[in-house]
Amino acid sequence: MSEPTYRCDGCGNVTRFDVTVSQTTKSFHHYTVGGELMIEEVDVLSRTVDDVVCRWCGHGRSVVEISDAEAHDSPEEPGEQSRVS
User: Fold this and answer.
1) How much is the pTM?
2) HEC profile for the chain?
3) What is the pLDDT of residue 85?
4) N or C: at which end does the chain have fewer Cβ atoms within 10 angstroms?
5) Residue 80's pLDDT band (boundaries 50, 70, 90)?
6) What's the confidence (pLDDT) of residue 60?
7) Among the listed residues 1, 5, 53, 6, the one whose alpha carbon sits nearest the alpha carbon of residue 23
8) Residues 63, 66, 71, 73: is their CA dihedral positive or negative?
9) Residues facing 28 on adjacent strands
10) How many CB atoms lie within 10 A of CB 71?
11) C-alpha span between 5 and 7 (Å, rounded)
12) So where are the chain's domains?
């Protein structure tokens, strides 16, 4: 499951967001003979994005999810020009 990419249409931010997620997981808990826990084989059964807030604007009113193609075409920081190598 890939993570979505976001853009704030208010300020142009594409790099910094606070994302609140609720998820249900199933995992294998392996305890050593000494009693230490190692968590292995974590499977995400369900996942919901509850809130996305722009770190620059401080709100999520203008945050939109964008496609991979749009994310690669966006400059890394607002106001920067895209660079072609």
Assistant:
1) 0.65
2) CCCCEEEECCCCCCCCEEEEEEEEEEEEEEECCCCCEEEEEEEEEEEEEEEEEECCCCCCCCEEEECHHHHHHCCCCCCCCCCCC
3) 32
4) C
5) very low
6) 85
7) 1
8) negative
9) 40
10) 14
11) 7
12) 5-73
